[in-house]
Specification:
This protein is α/β, with parallel strands linked by helices. It folds into two domains: 153 residues, P-loop containing nucleotide triphosphate hydrolases (Rossmann fold); 116 residues, no CATH class. 39% of the residues lie in helices and 18% in strands. A five-stranded parallel sheet has the order 2-3-1-4-5, with helices on both faces. The protein has a four-stranded parallel sheet with strand order 7-8-6-9, with helices on one face. Helix 2 links the parallel strand 2 and strand 3. Helix 1 crosses helix 6 and helix 4 packs across helix 5. It is elongated and about 75 Å long. The N and C termini lie far apart (56 Å).
Length: 296
């Protein structure tokens, strides 16, 4: 059983403080997540993860008052996990009474500890029950002034240290003649660059071939464009991450999607991969008209 290689995060805190958003942030970071697990099952769950032969190396579990009478055993379950030698961190989410009352009014939900009474009474009772857990928490986040995106970003920042940049980026080359991909976030049109299609020996090749890349990037205009475009990406992608974005699609298009867009997409993908982004590259239209025909 590989306990040392398993990271466990237990998410708890006040109802309405953002446990769901925190769990989703960790899920985006590659954690195996379980919502509302009764604390009595924590040790058994950790043992199953440790026996997964590396398939589950990091797990996040939300434990809260929805566990009913089982929730009171959470503190004991955390102690048992540590005694068994598991690497455990506790994330406690808090918020002001005023903020929690506003959130309950907006959602029109009843507080679990005061289903027939005032929301404030339930919040105060919950604070008393959770005080011991708050004291032993490794991380406390006050979400009173945070948007959902800001909370997710804070969770990612605190628990993704040492993992590299975890936003996934898809780079797609395409031909405008076949339509723009529907899911593109950032669109770049490179039809202003010299077209290898008009060089007979390059026409049957694609932007993945060295001869085509040499032709494109041997041009001073292409070199200047790449320098400025890569600098732009290097500037804006961290800001997307801070806003909680976990997946970005960059679309790079030329006429037919065979030469220029492919070469640029390859260069962009390698640039971002070198900066620890999770990268996938797809050349949607590169093989559609390689034998000639209309201009690429």
């Amino acid at each position: 059983m590989d306990k040392e290689g398993l990271e466990i995060i237990v998410i708890t805190g006040l109802s309405g403080a953002g446990r769901t958003q925190a769990m989703q942030s960790l899920e985006d970071q590659g954690f195996f997540c379980v919502d509302n697990l009764p604390p009595t099952f924590l040790v058994k769950f950790a043992e199953l993860c440790a026996q997964s032969r590396g398939k589950v190396s990091k797990a996040a579990i939300v434990c809260d008052l929805r566990g009913g009478e089982f929730f009171s055993s959470l503190s004991e379950a955390l102690t048992n996990l540590e005694t068994e030698g598991f690497h455990l961190r506790v994330l406690f989410l808090d918020a002001s009474d005023k903020t929690l009352i506003r959130r309950y009014k907006e959602s029109r939900r009843r507080h679990p500890l005061s289903p027939q009474g005032r929301v404030l009474d339930g919040i105060q009772a919950e604070r008393q029950q959770l005080e011991e857990l708050r004291i032993r928490a490794d991380e406390i986040i006050d979400t009173s002034d945070l948007t959902s995106q800001q909370l997710r970003a804070q969770v990612a920042e605190r628990f993704a240290k040492g993992r590299g940049t975890q936003m996934a980026v898809s780079v797609i080359s395409f031909g405008f003649k076949y339509g723009i991909p529907l899911d593109v976030d950032l669109l770049m049109d490179v039809r202003f660059l010299p077209n290898p299609f008009y060089v007979e020996k390059l026409r049957p090749l694609t932007g993945e071939d060295k001869q085509v890349q040499d032709y494109i990037f041997g041009n001073q205009m292409a070199q200047e464009f790449m320098e400025k475009y890569l600098a732009l990406l290097e500037y804006i992608l961290p800001n997307y991450i801070r806003e909680g974005k976990t997946h970005l699609v960059i679309g790079i298009g030329c006429t037919g999607g065979q030469h220029r867009s492919v070469a640029i997409a390859e260069r962009v993908g390698q640039f971002l991969r070198d900066r620890n982004y999770v990268i996938s590259i797809k050349h949607r239209d590169a093989a559609k008209n390689r034998k000639g025909g209309t201009a690429r």
